[in-house]
Structure formats: structure tokens, C-alpha cells
Design goal:
heterotrimer, A mainly alpha, B alpha/beta, C mainly alpha, A: mainly alpha, MetI-like fold, two-stranded antiparallel sheet, disordered N terminus, disordered C terminus, B: alpha/beta, D-Maltodextrin-Binding Protein, domain 2, 43% helix, globular
């Protein structure tokens, strides 16, 4: 701005700074409006009873309520379960499928397409589809099981099976991970394997001492982003419990969040329910802050591991 | 837009030091907005979604149009409370909203989601005593009336005459249990083919609020805290329910339930003869007439606890409610529509003949134009019985019901075994929440 | 990472063959059969759900309530029935508007930011990039309450605008991916442009943009599909207004709101999946390369 008033041409340094600012401007505004301000505001609301109409200061009451809110604790445990089970399951399965596909001699392209395809299915459609497939009375899965003489479980109606049912859904959509792992596997220099083979190392040995160390940065990155995604796990669980409970959005419909027994109630769902269904937005802000702190822990791990991101040329 | 955002950004940074950030217009009274005589179009949200009910509602609106030709009503069907609440809180309300449930009346009135109707009622000189006391009670909260009763619902028992094998409907819970066992038909492998009575709390209309009146179970103490743990009637109800569930086998019952058609479709289990005795509201009469006209069925009040025979004849009563949302842009015309729909005898009779819901005013119930038959009469009688009860208004009503329902689901499945302890915990959850939301 | 590490689809066999030790033929043949049998079994499991959903979509509603697998009669009319019982066309149009406008705006705003972060040295660049990563990784729920309040104060919480407008200000994930890709473009290209007297804008438009085309195509596809599949966003902002419902919202409430049976629900599910799968087959290469880009190595 000041440069504009000066009669002589702006110095290259100022011009450069102006260019950078112009290029970054949209994002800078976005960062302030959609990130910095809301973060501060969340802290502010967490001390209030806020329902969009009025905000009343209530000190730490929202925080005290969290300590006794068993559904929040349940939701927290469910989300931890997903982080601890869903993420490793996806990684192992994704790596296994990738290993298989890169070794195929015939039809590798076809199989890659088949394994990738389900990951394109819109989340909502896939979820509704799985609730039907795993319906104990009308779904084909239990139908096939009983044809084989096995009494299938009540999947999304049984708290012991509901989350494993969601893991199945997630494994079905493994496509992205498979492609990423395939790329990593193909990057492993082939001469390493040849040298190991000459030394008489078996397939397992080769996997442990060559494949894993070489692709470990990719594995690590996928693990951390997987954890962060698992912490946001919402849509599949939200829809599954509503459809499986037979919720009809009508009076007398006895839908409880996270049906059955709250086993599908994840932390983001409880936050959503609290903020945008019950409109206890002050308390929801407390839940949001808890989510922030935990996410930050994982993000810091990621950033420490990949300091190279900030560097030139990576 | 960008400029707007800058303003918001500035406002946002100052908002941190202010106390309230409000959305939507402040509550407006009967004087606000365009005069009711001016030509205008208003939007109305309602919960009806079954074709025949939507048609009945349009008929009533057509009647309104003949009397108030300058007001055009734009009706949106199939709207639930989540949408109503979110829209009004978010500052984008319809002009009139009708809710299918009384669950949220406490929240509606207390936080001002719907406008206080007192000034409207006084200006129009409407006598609220045309509505029965119980109906008055579920449309107000702590003395504040923010919604009007549109139509009422009463719950009773439907039974399939062919499958009853000449038996009379049960009057007590033990009779119901005995009959349910007798009439149940199973497949050779033990799966259920026809259920005498389906006791699951998650089945269609079997929610705690609807079944509670069978044992006279009470929800709240006078101060709004939970009475569920301390009222033995809940234990009696759940013990009875659990005994019957166990007789069927919980997993068999769940498998059966999940193979049933949708409650609001023509594949409803009662329509298809999958259940013999069935708890449902009076509207089932209309749906049976429309999609299963050949089904021979009878109706009766719900059976009651063996030690509370005096309760027989009553049951659960609730209803559709309608009000003027905060931020309504045409509150005057909105109120004219509400007054018409809730108090005009012709309108109520039209609605009732189409939906078979119970008209809330005495005049409409006694109108010669109201079609009556024996099965419908049962519900009119239940409605007039002194033993009817409703779910009392409470600021967290939906949350409280979910809390109890979740426990019932677990108890039925055998995943919770300590009945007294579980109900005590329900009390604690409800009371903690009450403190959070009411201070 | 560098661009040439992105594998070409066909290179699987050439680059990684299991080490060949001298073995007797039968064993190698057995190995060959075993892995292909496993692949076929897995393929059946991956395709099974799609097949069952398609079969159910063609059943009568009564049959869909049984556990039979094969339709007794082929009810192609189920598909047209969806269009008459639900405003499916409206949902499709809304979803298209949301996805296309969000993608276009995202590209317009994110490319310059990525360019500045990747190709210009300035003070605070590192910090800015760290903040991009933070925005990308932090769950959106963390800031949902104040942002919702913000949109509510503008009266926009019954529309898709709160999901589209923020795209004017860039999308962290896209900025990140674009930046990573632009880093791999050798410096000499932009230096040459500068020698020719081009400013930063011209360099970006004339030199870097064409070279970053694969990455731009990838982020555009990701953004489009993210919007196409998005449920949380429309649930939060558009669910109060049936006129702005998207496909995700419609399908999720399909069974509850329209009291329909599984056959129609599955038919609707198929209709939602179909366009995505068609686009995939048309643009398979972009997809696979794009996904590979996201598996960034540190």
C-alpha cells in the first residue's frame, strides 16, 4: 500500500512480498475465518451454556459434566476401539492385497480394478448396502451362512458384532490403501531381493528385512492419517445405527444414538448430537476441545516423523 | 459475500467479549409482520408422509383457502423435529410448524423456539378449555403455552380376528402373556412364523412412553427429576416384558423383527398377519382401510397390570402440535391458520376422517360428520377415559426417553441384568443432564 | 518424492517379480495357481456385495423381505419407481451443483497458494505450510460449533452455501498435494521463464500449471468425489431444507422417510454408485496416479 503512494517503482523485494500476499490472500482469509477465529471461539463457548439463542456464563460446569457423562466416555472408548482395531486391520489387509496384486502374472490390471472399485462406492450407499447385506433375517450373508449350517450373528443389532461389521465395510473399501502400497512395493529396488535370494533368505525373511524397512515411511504415513481418519469416523456409524435400528423419524420411534447399546456411538457423533440435535453447544465445545487435544497429539507425532515436509525439495 | 465475511470476522473478534450471539429475529407478537388481511404466502411444515394422510391435510388446507382466499399455504410434508429445531435455531424457520410428537414441547416453550401464544389467544378470544385437560397439559410447559393441539392420538390394542381363534382380547398383562404364547406359531427350526404379541421395546410403537401406562408407570417427580428408578411400576413393566422376551428367545425375536416390513408401508407386520395382537395408535384404522381392507380385526384398550385393574380403559394419549416459530415472517397469517386448523370443527372433522386421528375439541368429536365405526369408537372411548395419561413436558424429554429406551434394549437382550441398579443409573443420567441444561 | 516414482500401471510384473531361485517346476506352478486362486476368491468377495445389492434392487418388495438371493421376477420398474416416489432428480442436480462449483472454486483458490508455498522463497513460508498441514489434519468437528454459528448469523444454514463458499478460500488438502507435486518440478524451468522476464503470475500460469496437470487433475477429482460422497456437510447445513438435499442425504433417509422396502432402497443405492463407477472407468489412470500421490513418502 505504501509503495503505491511512492512515485518511483516499488523495489523488487516489495513487489515480491506483494505477489506472495496476493497469492496467499484467499487462504489467509480462510485460515482466519474458518480456523483461527473458530478455535478461539470454541474455547469461549466452552465456558457458557449456549444454544444459538443465548449464551450464559457457567464457568467450568460443562467440563464437570463431561467427567460424569457416560455416553461421552462410551463414545470415546468406541473411537479408541476403531483407532486400535480398524486402522491396523486396514493396513494389514491393504498391504496383503497389494502384495498379492504386484505378484500376479495374469490379470493384474483386472484384479487391481476389482479391488479398487468398492472404494469408489459413495459412503452412504455402501453403508446402507451393508446394513441390508448383514441383516440377520433378510440379508444374503446370513442366508449363505445358514445354507452352510452356520447360525450367523445379528451383526448391526448385536453390540459385540456391530463394530466388527463396520470393519468389514472398511476392508471392502481398501482400494486407496492398496494402490498406495502397490506403488511403494514397486519402488523397492529389485536388486535387494536378488542379493537376499543369493544369501538364501526365504520369502518371509525378505519381507521382514527388505520390504518392511523400505516401505516403512509409507506405512507410517498411512498409519497416522488412518488414525486421524478413524478419529473422525462418523458417517458409516451414524447411518448404520439409524438404519439397523429401523428408526423411522416418526413419533414413538425409539431410536437411540449409536444403536445397539451405544456400541456404534463414536466421539464425533456424540459431538454432533450434542451440538446440532440437542443444541447444548457449550458442552459440545468441550467435546470439540477434547478432540482437538487428542488429534494434536497424533499430528505432532506425524510432524516429528516427517520434518522433511517443510524442507526444500523433500 | 467476501465483504460480508470481513464484517463477520470483525464482529467475531468482538463477539469474544460479548455475552450473547443470537440467530434469527427476536420473538415477535401478534402485531408483527404483514397484517393478516394482506395477501401473502406462508410456509407450513408438517410431519404427515403417508399418502392418505397428506391428502387429508391438503383437503383441510383447501378448506382454509376457501375461507381465507388471500392466504396461500405452501405445505412441506414429512418434516421431523430435528429439522424443525435446527431450522428455527439456525434462523431459517417456516411460518408455521406442526410436530408429530410432544417430546420437545418443554424445550420449545422454555427456550422460545415457538412463540408464546398467550397474546394471540387473548386477541382472538380463544377459549382453551375446549380442549381436554390432558391435551392442555402436553401443549404447555411451566404454565407457558407455545403450541396448540392439532389432532390427538390414543394408543390401544389391535388384534387379528382370524388368528385369535375366537379368543377375547386380554385385559391384564398375565392374560396377554398366556394368549401370546398360545397364539404364537413357530417354524420347525424354532424360528417365529407368527408372533402372538411382539414385546420388543424397539418394535414399531412399543416405546416405553406408550407401554408405561399399562402399569401406571411415572416418569418424573414434581421437581422434574426422574422417578423411573423409584417407581415400582417400571420394574413391573420391564419384568413382564423380559419374561415374554425370554420365552420367545431374544435372538429368535430379533431375527423375526428384522424380517418385518416397514411400519408405515403396506408391508406392516400387522397388515401381513405376522403378529396377532399389536400395540398401535388410532391411525392404524385408516392405514388398514387403505392397504389391507380385507383384514378382519378388532380393537380394545391396552391390558393393564394384574394388580392395577382400575387402569383398564385408559392408555397413552399424545398428539400432533402446531405453533408459530420464533422468526416467523408472517406470524399473523400463521396464527389464523393455526386457529383454523385447531379449533374449526369442519377442519378437524376433515382431518380426522382422513387420518383417523382423534379430533381434540368436544364439538368435533360429537359432530355428526365424523365417521365412526366400532374399531374407531374404541379409541374415542379411550380418549374420554379418566385413566389416560401422557408423557409430561420436560426440557430434555427426548434425551430422557432415549436413556430409558437404551437401558430397556440392553435389559431385554440380557446384556444388563441388574434391573434396580440399571434404572437407578437412568435416574442419575437424566438428573445430571437436567442440571446441565437448566442450571 | 519425485514424479517418476509414480508407477505406471503396467509395470507391476517388470519391476517386481519374486526372486527366482532354482526350483522344480511343479512348485512354481502350484505357487502360480495358489496366488491366482486367492486373487479370484478375493475378487468374488469384493464384487459380492455389489452383485447382491443389484439383485435385490430387481426383486419385488415381498421377496426383498426374504433371504432368497435370486430374483423370482426381474422388476426393472423399481428404478423408474424411485424417480416417481422421491425427488431423485433434484438431489442429483443439487449434488452436481455442489460438487462442480466447489471443485472449480477450490482449484482457483488453491493453485496460487500451492504455487507460492512451493516455488517462492519468503519469510514465514515454513510456518504457513505447517498451518496448512494442521488445517488438513485437524478434524472439522473441532471447529464446527462456531462455524455453524457464523453461517446461522447469515441465515445460510438451510442451504449448501456454507459448504461451497469456503472453497473460495482454498482447501488445505488440495494445497498440500499440489505443493508437494510442484516441488518436484525442476527449478530450471521457472528460472528460464524469469530470464525471459516473466513475473510470478505468468510463470505460474504458463510454466508450472501445465507441468502440474496430473496433480491438478487428481485434486480436482478428489474434491469432486469428496463432495459427491459428502454426508456430514449436507447433514449439518442442508438437511433442514428438502430443496437443497443432496444424494447422500436422500439415500440415507430413503428407507425411513419414504417407508420403502429394501428393494427400492437398493435400487437407489445402485443409481448413486453407477455414475461414480462410470467416471472411474473413463479416468482410471488419473485416479490411480492421484491416489498414489497421496501416499506421500517423507
Amino acid at each position: 500500500m505504501t509503495a503505491f503512494l511512492k512515485p518511483r517503482a516499488p523495489s523488487p523485494r516489495w513487489r515480491r512480498r506483494g505477489t506472495v500476499l496476493a497469492l496467499l490472500a484467499p487462504w489467509l482469509i480462510g485460515f482466519t475465518v474458518f480456523f483461527a477465529y473458530p478455535m478461539a471461539s470454541t474455547v469461549y463457548y466452552s465456558f457458557h451454556r449456549f444454544d444459538l439463542f443465548t449464551a450464559e456464563f457457567i464457568g467450568l460446569d460443562n467440563y464437570w459434566y463431561f467427567l460424569g457423562d457416560e455416553r461421552a466416555h462410551l463414545a470415546f472408548r468406541n473411537t479408541l476401539w476403531l483407532v486400535a482395531v480398524l486402522v491396523p486391520a486396514q493396513m494389514v489387509f491393504g498391504l496383503g492385497v497389494a502384495q498379492l496384486v504386484v505378484r500376479l502374472k495374469a490379470g493384474a490390471g483386472f484384479f487391481r480394478t476389482v479391488f479398487f472399485l468398492p472404494s469408489l462406492v459413495p459412503t452412504v450407499a455402501g453403508t446402507v448396502g451393508f446394513v441390508f447385506l448383514l441383516n440377520p433375517a433378510t440379508g444374503p450373508v446370513n442366508g449363505l451362512l445358514s445354507a452352510a449350517g452356520i447360525e450367523g450373528p445379528d451383526w448391526y443389532g448385536d453390540p459385540a458384532w456391530a463394530k466388527p461389521g463396520l470393519v468389514l465395510l472398511a476392508l471392502w473399501g481398501i482400494g486407496n490403501l492398496m494402490v498406495i502400497f502397490m506403488a511403494a512395493l514397486l519402488d523397492v529396488p529389485r536388486h535387494l531381493y536378488e542379493a537376499a535370494a543369493i544369501d538364501g533368505a526365504g520369502a518371509l525373511r525378505q519381507f521382514r528385512s527388505i520390504t518392511l524397512p523400505t516401505i516403512s515411511p509409507v506405512l507410517m504415513f498411512s498409519a497416522v492419517t488412518g488414525v486421524i481418519q478413524a478419529m473422525q469416523y462418523f458417517t458409516q456409524a451414524w447411518i448404520t445405527s439409524r438404519v439397523a435400528a429401523g428408526a423411522t423419524d416418526s413419533p414413538g420411534s425409539s431410536y437411540t444414538p449409536g444403536y445397539p447399546d451405544g456400541s456404534l456411538l463414536t466421539f464425533p457423533q456424540w459431538l454432533f448430537q450434542t451440538a446440532f440435535r440437542d443444541f447444548s453447544m457449550g458442552y459440545a465445545s468441550v467435546l470439540a476441545l477434547i478432540m482437538f487435544v487428542i488429534s494434536m497429539l497424533f499430528i505432532l507425532i506425524l510432524l516429528r516423523r516427517f520434518r522433511a515436509f517443510g524442507d526444500e525439495g523433500a | 459475500m467476501r465483504r460480508r465475511l470481513f464484517t463477520v470476522l470483525l464482529a467475531g473478534s468482538t463477539a469474544l467479549s460479548l455475552t450473547a450471539c443470537t440467530a434469527g429475529a427476536p420473538p415477535a407478537g401478534p402485531e408483527a409482520g404483514p397484517k393478516k388481511e394482506e395477501p401473502q404466502t406462508i410456509t407450513l411444515w408438517h410431519g404427515f408422509s403417508v399418502d392418505s394422510e397428506v391428502k387429508a391435510f391438503s383437503d383441510a388446507l383447501a378448506l382454509f383457502k376457501t375461507k381465507y382466499p388471500h392466504i396461500t399455504v405452501n405445505a412441506v410434508k414429512g418434516v421431523d423435529d430435528d429439522r424443525i429445531i435446527q431450522a428455527i435455531r439456525g434462523g431459517t424457520p417456516p411460518d408455521v410448524a406442526a410436530s408429530f410428537t410432544t417430546d420437545n414441547v418443554g424445550q420449545f416453550c422454555k427456550t422460545g423456539i415457538f412463540q408464546d401464544l398467550k397474546p394471540y389467544l387473548e386477541a382472538a378470544k380463544v377459549d382453551i378449555d375446549v380442549f381436554p385437560k390432558v391435551v392442555q397439559s402436553y401443549t404447555e410447559f411451566e404454565g407457558k403455552r407455545c403450541v396448540m393441539p392439532l389432532l390427538a392420538d390414543a394408543y390401544g390394542m389391535y388384534y387379528n380376528k382370524a388368528l385369535m381363534k375366537g379368543k377375547q382380547p386380554p385385559k391384564t398383562l398375565s392374560e396377554l402373556t398366556a394368549l401370546a404364547k398360545e397364539l404364537t406359531v413357530r417354524e420347525p427350526n424354532g424360528d417365529i412364523k407368527v408372533a402372538g404379541f411382539l414385546p420388543s421395546g424397539d418394535f414399531y410403537e412399543n416405546s416405553a412412553s406408550h407401554l408405561g401406562p399399562m402399569t401406571g408407570a411415572k416418569w418424573y417427580n414434581p421437581d422434574g427429576t426422574s422417578a423411573i428408578g423409584s417407581d415400582p411400576a417400571w420394574k413391573a413393566l420391564l419384568t413382564w416384558q423380559k419374561e415374554l422376551v425370554d420365552w420367545y428367545g431374544h435372538d429368535k425375536l430379533e431375527k423375526f423383527r428384522k424380517g418385518l416390513g416397514d411400519e408405515w408401508s403396506a408391508d406392516n407386520a400387522f397388515h401381513k398377519g405376522k403378529v396377532v395382537m399389536h400395540v398401535d395408535g388410532e391411525w392404524r384404522n385408516a392405514m388398514l382401510a387403505n392397504t389391507a381392507p380385507d383384514l378382519e380385526y378388532g380393537t380394545a384398550p391396552l391390558p393393564v397390570a394384574d394388580d392395577r385393574p382400575e387402569l383398564y380403559g385408559g392408555g397413552f394419549v399424545s398428539g400432533t402440535i402446531v405453533g408459530v416459530p420464533r422468526g416467523s415472517k408472517h406470524p399473523q397469517a400463521a396464527w389464523e391458520l393455526i386457529r383454523f386448523l385447531t379449533t374449526d370443527t369442519e377442519a378437524l372433522v376433515t382431518l380426522s376422517n382422513g387420518t383417523r386421528n382423534i379430533p381434540t375439541t368436544q364439538a368435533a368429536r360429537q359432530s355428526p360428520n365424523l365417521k365412526k365405526d366400532a374399531n374407531y369408537q374404541t379409541f374415542l372411548d379411550i380418549f374420554d377415559n379418566p385413566n389416560i395419561s401422557t408423557l409430561p413436558s420436560h426440557i430434555n424429554s427426548a434425551f430422557n426417553q432415549e436413556t430409558l429406551q437404551e437401558f430397556i434394549t440392553r435389559y431385554e437382550a440380557g446384556r444388563a441384568t441388574d434391573l434396580a441398579g440399571g434404572l437407578a443409573k437412568v435416574d442419575k443420567t437424566i438428573n445430571d443432564r437436567l442440571r446441565l441444561s437448566a442450571g | 518424492m519425485s514424479a517418476d516414482t509414480v508407477p505406471a500401471a503396467g509395470s507391476a510384473q517388470d519391476r517386481l517379480t519374486p526372486p527366482s531361485r532354482p526350483r522344480r517346476m511343479p512348485r512354481a506352478t502350484l505357487y502360480w495357481i495358489a496366488k491366482h486362486a486367492l486373487a479370484i476368491a478375493l475378487a468374488l468377495m469384493f464384487l459380492g456385495p455389489l452383485v447382491f445389492i443389484a439383485l435385490t434392487a430387481l426383486m419385488t418388495d415381498a421377496q426383498a423381505l426374504t433371504s432368497q438371493l435370486w430374483p423370482q421376477s426381474w422388476n426393472w420398474g423399481n428404478f423408474s419407481e424411485i424417480f416417481t416416489t422421491t425427488p431423485l432428480l433434484r438431489w442429483i442436480v443439487n449434488t452436481m451443483v455442489y460438487s462442480l462449483s466447489a471443485t472449480a472454486l477450490m482449484l482457483a483458490s488453491s493453485v496460487p497458494v500451492a504455487y507460492a508455498l512451493a516455488r517462492i522463497r519468503f519469510r514465514g513460508r515454513k510456518t504457513a505450510f505447517l498451518l496448512v498441514i494442521l488445517m488438513m489434519l485437524l478434524p472439522p468437528q473441532v471447529v464446527a460449533v462456531p462455524i455453524y454459528t457464523l453461517w446461522a448469523s447469515m441465515g445460510l444454514t438451510n442451504s449448501l452455501w456454507p459448504l461451497i463458499i469456503p472453497m473460495v478460500f482454498g482447501d488445505a488438502f488440495s494445497i498440500f498435494l499440489l505443493r508437494q507435486f510442484m516441488l518436484t518440478i525442476p527449478r530450471e524451468y521457472s528460472d528460464a521463464a524469469r530470464v525471459d522476464g516473466c513475473g510470478e503470475f505468468t510463470t505460474m500460469l504458463r510454466v508450472i500449471l501445465p507441468m502440474a496437470r496430473p496433480a491438478i487433475a487428481a485434486v480436482a477429482l478428489f474434491q469432486f468425489f469428496y463432495c459427491w460422497n459428502d454426508y456430514y456437510g449436507p447433514l449439518l447445513y442442508a438437511s433442514t431444507n428438502a430443496d437443497s438435499w443432496t444424494l447422500s442425504l436422500g439415500i440415507a433417509s430413503f428407507k425411513a422417510l419414504h417407508s420403502v422396502q429394501w428393494n427400492l432402497t437398493m435400487a437407489a443405492t445402485i443409481l448413486v454408485m453407477a455414475p461414480v463407477i462410470i467416471v472411474f472407468f473413463l479416468a482410471q489412470k488419473v485416479f490411480i496416479e492421484g491416489v498414489t500421490l497421496t501416499g506421500v513418502k517423507g
